[in-house]
Predict the 3D structure of the following.
Amino acid sequence: MPDIKSFFDAIRSGDLTLVRSHLDSDPSLASSKNESGASALLMSIYTGQREVRELLLSRGLPMDVAEAAAAGNLPRVQHFVESNPALANANSGDGFPVFALACFFGHLDTARYLAEKGANIHAAATNGSGYNALTAAVTAGHTAIVQWLLERGLDPNYRYGPGYTPLLAAAANGHLEIVKLLLTHGADPTGASADGKSALSLATERNHPLVVDLLRSRSAAAS
């Protein structure tokens, strides 16, 4: 009988044959969760394994509101929230706000809907990561969502995890347009992570020359 760990390893790697074999041996694995509380379906979405996701759904596994938000299945999200408005502020099994999941995966229509239905757009994850919608959208590189969130008052200097800010994450990932947006909305270019790394040092270390040039020019203009 396959165990949950090997099942989730197969999901992460996108081994469709092995996932199917595990499900044939133990159909209950379809509704299992890993040690962090993430469902099998949510893990398939996190790891971009679309064929695995479709296989799980074909086994009759229903999407919950967090899975629907992450997948960008707006009709399914609407089904849940219209039935129970409190679900606009639900968290996934592994502690991420459904609103933040929609933002991380680039589903602006779903994020807009959740906000209209009362989602706390500032809500942070309850799993110790501190992630919120802005940090999610910044990390994933969704410029339009970052702009939308900043225009609605999310803090460009919000700190989470190892002392990171949205600007530090954007610089580390080389997201030039997002760096510009964050600076325009008041992000502190001199802020550093818990281990003392600035946006400039992270962009330099990760070899993002356009971000380096922008941050250096901002620094020179401020001096």
Notes: The domain at 158-223 is CATH 1.25.40.20 (Serine Threonine Protein Phosphatase 5, Tetratricopeptide repeat).
